[in-house]
Amino acid sequence: MSATDVLALSARAAADAIEAGSLAPRELFDAYRERAAADVSAGEDGLNCFTWVAPEPPTDDAPAPLAGVPLAVKDLFCTAGIPSQAGSRILAGYLPPYTASAVSRLTEAGATLMAKTNQDEFAMGSSNENSAFGAVRNPWDRERVPGGSSGGSAAAVAAGLAPWALGTDTGGSVRQPAALCGIVGLKPTYGAVSRYGMIAFASSLDQAGPLTRDVADAALMLRHMVGRDPCDATSLEFPEAIELPSAERLDGIRLGVPQELTGEGIEAGVLDSFGATLALAQELGAEIQPVHLPHAPHALSAYYVLAPAECSSNLARYDGVRYGYRAPDPKDLLDMYTRTRHDGFGAEVKRRIMLGTYALSAGYYDAYYGRAQRVRTKIAEDFRTAFAAVDFIVTPTAPTVAFRLGEKTAEPLAMYLNDYCTVPMSLAGIPAISIPGGLSEGLPVGFQMAGPAFSENRLLDAAHALEGAIGFDGAATRA
Ligand code: GLN
């Protein structure tokens, strides 16, 4: 097979070709590793997708079913003996003694770890500009952001530097970069995939999810990650096997359009593309109806209390004693703690730690944290009510197409608005997928579909049918 033919294969097609004997795992691995290494060597002229690329091709034949398909993994997944830094200076050079369950399940199924991907520091961000290892560029336009926080994973897949990648989504970090880079991103039901070995941001929200070229690849990756893990008490057995999607029609499927997430604040070009995708869904037999998520407009406010509160607690462990960076020549213990955290954390992480610490402080706990939790419950109830009337809820994934590097870095609140349509599903713990819904101003627009907890098989099937009708072509950025 020529290198061009190899790179044209989806992860699933590549695994099938290896099984059939028409492609050698080594050939596939080398084709991608060369491209990934070239991106690293290109420095400023590259996309800056990777924080580590495997120095050596694997020696053994990888087992079926994933048969050696190379995998890129977000930096915050612990990988034994391989740098796992969560995009932060405070973990620079950290080599964990163990591997995250999501990653080890994939490698046990035969995937080969090829690279670690750049990300916003501790997954806090929507543009990948908060990384201690520099911003990632969007392969559709190098002057624009890839989205965040799994920006390296999304850009690598969109640019054909990896066949597929693993990311994490706390408030949108798989779906939003997938949307901005023109690929598929799935946030599974909370608890479906073990969080063991995922460097924590906000534990009640963090979920691992696939970033892939198409919906079938997302299903294939999910299939090999799900399941109860004794090392994560919040993980659950998935009630059924994850099937590869096959639907081509949407007959009888009711799609709910929440007015609260499809009006004000969404760019006109994004709304046009969203409308065009709805029209296609209707042609496939879907019924479109309005629904209400009355508390959804408060999701962002609740999220930006809860996520910082959890992060302020999770990030207390970075004290210069146990892992990573330690400030040199401290005067005393307190000086060591203070300067380690001062030098080790970036501005956004410090902002969140301060916000979270404040929200959890004795005098304000109930006014902020307690109230945000009550809003979270209301949002989950809104979804339950809506799913009594419709099968899936659909929205644009992000309110805008990819914006320019530096455009929002001075305005944290403008940056937070990117999560307007993705955060409600995170708070409710339900699965949601972003598929490429077309272009606006020559840049990809994401179409988001969300379903009830553990509806992944149905959700993937519906997304697959729609993907076929949309016929989005991402090949241009993989050249
Ligand atoms: N952009 C959101 C934030 O900064 C979501 C991040 C995420 O999902 N990890 O918190």
What does this structure look like?
With 479 residues, this protein is α/β, with parallel strands linked by helices. The chain has a domain at 3-250 and 459-478: Amidase signature (AS) enzymes. Helices cover 36% and strands 13% of the residues. It has 15 helices and 11 strands. It has helices at residues 3-8, 11-20, 25-41, 101-108, 151-158, 175-181, 215-223, 268-283, 299-314, 333-344, 347-360, 365-389, 412-416, 423-428, 456-470, and strands at 50-53, 70-74, 112-117, 164-169, 184-187, 207-212, 254-258, 287-291, 392-396, 432-440, 443-450. An 11-stranded mixed β-sheet has the order 1-3-2-4-6-5-10-11-9-7-8, with helices on both faces. Helix 5 packs parallel to helix 6, helix 9 (299-314) packs across helix 11 and helix 9 (299-314) crosses helix 12 (365-389). It is globular and about 70 Å long. The chain starts with a helix and ends in a 9-residue tail after the last helix. Residues 123-126, 149, 169-173, 201, 307, 419 line the site of glutamine.
Keywords summarizing the entry:
single chain, globular, Amidase signature (AS) enzymes, 11 strands, 13% strand, binds glutamine, alpha/beta, 15 helices
